[in-house]
Amino acid sequence: MFKELSYCRPQTVAEAVAALQTPGARALAGGTDLVVHLREGRQGVTMAVDLNAIPGLGQIGVQGEEIFLGPLVTFSQLMNSALIRYEAPLLARAAATVGSPQIRNRGTIGGNIMNASPAGDSLPVLLALDAEVTLAGPTGERRLSLAVLLAGPYRTRALPGEVLKEIRFPRLPAGCGSSFVKLGRRNALAIARINVAAVLQVEAGRINFARLAVGAVTPVPRRFPEAEAVLTGVGPGEEVYKAAAREVAAGMVRAAGRRPSFAYKIPAVQALVRRALAEAAQAIEGGEADAPGSH
User: Fold this and answer.
1) Pick from 116, 205, 250, 260: most CB atoms within 10 A?
2) Does 29 share its domain with 115?
3) Using an 8 Å Cβ cutoff, are 209 and 232 in contact?
4) What share of the chain is helix, strand, coil (3-state, %, to 5)?
5) β-bridge mates for residue 183, sequence order
6) pLDDT at residue number 42
7) What range defines the domain where residue 135 resides?
8) Hey, which bits of 186-243 come out as E strands?
9) Which residues, at least 6 apart from 20, have a Cβ–Cβ distance to it below 8 Å?
10) C-alpha closest to that of 29 among 95, 105, 111, 99
């Protein structure tokens, strides 16, 4: 199986795009998903296109009012980045829950996105951050929202030959708090059974806007606009959190249909949503992080 696998290491994005037009070619970033795919004997992969020699794909930075991430940024980089801890602390927290230290050192944000697992820990966070992705392909570049990119379990709307070039999301305005919570079978090395990302902005005692995204309960991680509408314009508190949690549970059933696992997932997702919202509100009161370089 491995003996039949071709390998190339492009030096530019354009070279990677050209290589990925080969039937059976797959991008190789950290390799934590692709190697599993190969070991399990799944068919269809004939060439690994290693992106790690392309300059600039492992950068984290800020440009104007946007944070940008290269697709080769690892989870260890995210959890240790002073910029991310300050600008998007929920992303740093989510990165810290991914796998083992070895997996976090190799696994990349781009790989997590393009694998499109319903339980991918970065996906609800990036949805709550209003993230967009830039794809480079044979006909040029295009930018689309992460929500549009995610087409289904382990499927994206990337076209043949396209490679993920960059992830961007707007900086959170003043008065924002955020949270990421995750339910797994154990505290470490666990794939999420449910993961929740929440962002709240509170002004003059009322929630100005809310973003709430949940993973592992629907075919793709998604925002829940009905729950966000319940939260908007009212004061933060347990009763409104409960109402939003009920909307998430109802939206989960509408999106995925009734399943046997929902006997525990409905109360579990409601509890996690309430907790995430409460933690986001508390973060506003306490301040989430020090400015980069202040440690």
Assistant:
1) 116
2) no
3) yes
4) 40, 25, 35
5) 194
6) 58
7) 60-170
8) 194-203, 206-215, 222-223
9) 26, 27, 49, 160, 161, 162, 163
10) 111
pLDDT band (50, 70, 90) for residue 159: very high
In whole angstroms, what is the distance from residue 139 CA to residue 137 CA?
A: 5
* Whole-number Å distance between alpha carbons of 102 and 90: 21
Nearest residue to 197 (alpha-carbon basis) of 219, 182, 175, 208: 182
Q: Which two tokens stand for residue 21?
A: 């037009």
User: How far, in Å, CA of 142 to CA of 164, rounded?
Assistant: 10
215 and 272, same domain (yes or no): yes
In this prediction, residue 262 carries a pLDDT of 82
Domain shared by 136 and 215, yes or no: no
Contacts of 251 (CB under 8 A, 6+ apart): 224, 226, 227
| Token output for 87 | 């600008």
User: Would 16 be classed as within a structural domain?
Assistant: yes
pLDDT value at 293 more than 90 = no
The residue among 148, 170, 192 that closes a domain is 170
Asked whether residue 290 carries a pLDDT value surpassing 60, the answer given is no
Residue 142 and residue 135 in contact, taking contact as beta carbons nearer than 8 Å? yes
The β-bridge partners of 206 are 203
Number of domains in the chain: 3
Contacts of 231 (CB under 8 A, 6+ apart): 200, 207, 210, 212, 240, 241, 244, 277
Q: Average pLDDT in the 100-124 region?
A: 95
Alpha-carbon distance 210 to 276, whole Å? 12
The CATH number assigned to the domain holding 16 equals 3.30.43.10
Token pair for 171 = 């900086």
CATH of the domain at 86: 3.30.465.10
- Section 201-217 average pLDDT: 97
